[in-house]
Amino acid sequence: MVTFIEPSSRAGRDAGAIEAALAELTRAFGNRLVTSQIVREQHGNTLTWVANQPPDAVVFPQSAADVQEIVRICATHGVPVIPFGTGSSLEGQVNAPHGGVSIDVRDMNRVLAVHAEDLDCVIEPGITRKALNEHLRDQGLFFPIDPGADASLGGMAATRCSGTNAVRYGTMKDNVLSLKVVLANGEIMTTARRAKKSSSGYDLTRLMIGSEGTLGVIVELTLRLSGIPEAIASGICPFPSVEAACNATILTIQSGIPVARIELLDELQVKASNAYSRLRLPETPMRFGEIAVEFGGGPFEWATQAEERTKLWQARHDAYWSGRALRPGAGVFATDVCVPISRLAECVTATQRDIAESRLVAPIMGHVGDGNFHLTMTFDMADAEEVARAKALHERLVARALAMDGTCTGEHGVGQGKMAYLEAEHGRPALDAMRAIKRALDPDGIMNPGKIVSLA
Amino acid sequence: MVTFIEPSSRAGRDAGAIEAALAELTRAFGNRLVTSQIVREQHGNTLTWVANQPPDAVVFPQSAADVQEIVRICATHGVPVIPFGTGSSLEGQVNAPHGGVSIDVRDMNRVLAVHAEDLDCVIEPGITRKALNEHLRDQGLFFPIDPGADASLGGMAATRCSGTNAVRYGTMKDNVLSLKVVLANGEIMTTARRAKKSSSGYDLTRLMIGSEGTLGVIVELTLRLSGIPEAIASGICPFPSVEAACNATILTIQSGIPVARIELLDELQVKASNAYSRLRLPETPMRFGEIAVEFGGGPFEWATQAEERTKLWQARHDAYWSGRALRPGAGVFATDVCVPISRLAECVTATQRDIAESRLVAPIMGHVGDGNFHLTMTFDMADAEEVARAKALHERLVARALAMDGTCTGEHGVGQGKMAYLEAEHGRPALDAMRAIKRALDPDGIMNPGKIVSLA
């Protein structure tokens, strides 16, 4: 099979060190340490399209103290640790290219406190966003970040996730007040107090958000909550062209209309969603929108029935699966870029031309209110020539976004899939600064190595 | 004269190194390098109450390349550099406790680009917020962060400033898309692209925001802009007690009313503002509020005339000066803390009791929507016993805020004034992480040394 991104070599690993670490971990964690091939492979790649890179073992901690012990044991033996939430990341963040121990936080899933007056809550990292919102609903509160997948909150923070609601509510960086993080030396660092704002020293919270486990393992989060909107109106709107849809979006946002989310689907994605989610949308570029109002608010022309809205947004959230269903059995590589919104129409249109020339099946959808869009490339992984065309399309997509002052990833993160583009995006001084920070906080390189920045 | 915070010793400085650096700087910058006593002292303390600590020279760069040259020359000789905006910071951030060269960016004040479609602009660091908003007004846009003082945007980013509008618009961390920063090695780092969001690597933008020049000198900012609200209503509301005012605020925010700012003034501050700003407000705890609506919006009962609003907010912005005017000639020490909003009433009330017991004249005002409040302590600097009482009051204020899961500074920053409290607030692992980052990015300790974290 041809691979899209070559897995790193595991050469040079010290088998004796891993054996010694696993022996100690077994003594400490008993059957919560698992080394079966199937569980290791389940943790070796998930929705990503990077080839499977299983860890040497998976451990299921139940507390921050457990995570400290795991990290301390692994640090003693120089063995990598890889935090694992639900495995819904897309760029190989949870794979183990250098082996080591996957720390699966699924059992650390408690809500530790809800402070309704302060609009915040304290949780463990393994709870998923749907479970958290279920817990909060009775109090009229919710956590607004919604990446589609029912991801763990720890993983969402680690990836600086955003999703459909970012237009109104921002991304994870805007909705986390504080983190507790186990550092490479096994100590627990608290990044901030529960106050709504602070000017007290370096912003360690934001440094950890988006660091994908390469600087530490998140073991607790204090999240900023929002009131459930009083009124929500959703609607869909067909447009003659992607450009028309983008221009309408720019106007909408400039007018200050309280839009929560605006999603763009190109013709092919509408077709895929019609097939997969049994909708009957006209197969032209389409905008899904949602206005959420907490106070006052003008007249809405859109549909507001909850059932209808749910069906619409479920279809949107299933877009990844609908894309896969376009070519059953094919390889799927979901990638994203983000550009200034003024360049979005141009970027999407040029990408559509490029897809046509590449002779690939690759629908586009996007969080058009942020200038962020996704390309789901499907291809036959047995066909080296088709894989090569997909790789080239991906390269050109990133280059196009960067040329428009955009970023190589708006929300999927770097993982292994986007490492090659960081220098082109950020320049050498910024990349050197990232490396210096990585070295400063993880001098032995045991925290999720082989992701974001390489120290080699 | 007694000092509130002892200036660091300048012992151990290498006079030869400074002389050599100044000679090189003079060759490069001619009369844009100033060493007169008066200019050095103007840059040695401003609104802060830390004793004057003049730099050895002040230089006025006109470009990012100028700043690079200054930093390179100073780095060669191991001489500190201290970025300087308008000097309105309050915790000794721009003082030169270890001497060195103050980099005054007042001449780097151009608007480089306004991208109205993308709601952003690119500016130099020396432009002030009023000048920027003047420039933007014709396009219906504004930059919402408003600390009261007409500060430079570079300084506002360096201090992670927030101010009255933070309830609605967030702080500097939420409104800066990207920075260009001259690092200790003289290289220019760009922290991010102009895309609205990104998951591409460590969040260098947020790391620089609030770092007070200790990691680099900001030479360019890309700011997120907002539409000027269609409708603004301001109002004042007297309350029988601080607690009643705080509780009303909690309810207001929970209801999702689109409040832009809610300010609390205690009885003494109302009295001070009445005297200084010629108002006739009843002298009870008072809330200033402002609702800003960009779209739709309910009926307002408050005053909406621009003239009235301006007078009100000018009085609020002049609160620092009105506090000073309570005791002409006295020392003034303005400090701030921030606590979870559910603890605010308790914190303010306990602080008022403490002030009474301390026999000091010290009005309180606050950004009550954020849980952030200010204490303006006035005292006779010649009276060692009164200074000691003020110091003790300050210590207890910070301890009280920390005990309530708050922060030692919501928006003034650390500078020199709050360094002593960082370990109590953040714990040793977080402080060690800050030190490791400082060492990683500024190994020779030339970037604004003696602020935030000490490496000694």
How would you describe this structure in keywords?
homodimer, 5-stranded antiparallel β-sheet, alpha+beta, globular, 17 strands, 456 residues, 6-stranded antiparallel β-sheet, 16 helices
Q: What order do the strands of the largest sheet of chain A run in, or round the barrel if closed?
A: 12-14-13-16-17-15
The multimeric state of the shown protein is homodimer
> Biggest interface, and residues per chain?
A-B, 96 and 96 residues
The share of residues in extended strands of chain A comes to: 15-25%
Structural class of chain A: alpha+beta
Flag low-confidence runs of chain A.
295-301
How would you describe the overall organization of this protein?
Two copies of one chain form a homodimer. In chain A, 35% of the residues lie in helices and 19% in strands. Chain A is α+β, with helices and mostly antiparallel strands and 456 residues long. In chain A, a hairpin with a 4-residue loop joins strand 16 and strand 17. Chain A starts with 14 loop residues before the first helix and ends in a 15-residue tail after the last helix. About 2% of the residues of chain A have low confidence. The interface between A and B is large, with 96 and 96 residues.
